[in-house]
Specification:
The chain is an alpha+beta fold. The protein is built from two helices and eight strands. The radius of gyration is 14 Å and the shape is globular.
């Protein structure tokens, strides 16, 4: 576990990467649907800071790079969704339309 960075307006907390805890954070969030560029859902860091920073750490430690449109995005696949972060504190997810990319966190091989 590591502490979140000191972000103005967001209380400091321990980042817990336990799979059951992460899945509970994901399930408890109220994801907002959008059709911007492609259908997906998002949450904002100021609404779900623990979820945002937990997924940020997971993506950094166990994620992979994937091309979309004009650039590569760092992302991770968890339980049938791909997760990536956009600028401005936005956490995105989209239902997978392909096989998941395995990662060590979810019990698969390392992608690094």
């Amino acid at each position: 576990m590591t502490k979140s960075k000191n972000v103005p307006g967001i209380e400091e907390f321990e980042i817990n990467l336990d799979p059951a805890h992460v899945r509970a954070l994901i399930d408890d969030a109220d994801w907002t649907p959008t059709d911007y560029i492609q259908p997906h859902e998002y949450v904002k860091v100021w609404e779900y800071p623990e979820l945002y920073y937990t997924l940020k750490q997971l993506i950094g430690m166990y994620g992979y790079k994937r091309w979309f449109l004009y650039r590569q995005w760092d992302q991770i696949d968890i339980d049938g969704y791909e997760y990536w972060q956009a600028g401005g504190g936005i956490q995105n997810r989209r239902k997978l339309d392909r096989d998941a990319t395995p990662n060590k966190w979810s019990g698969g091989p390392d992608n690094g």
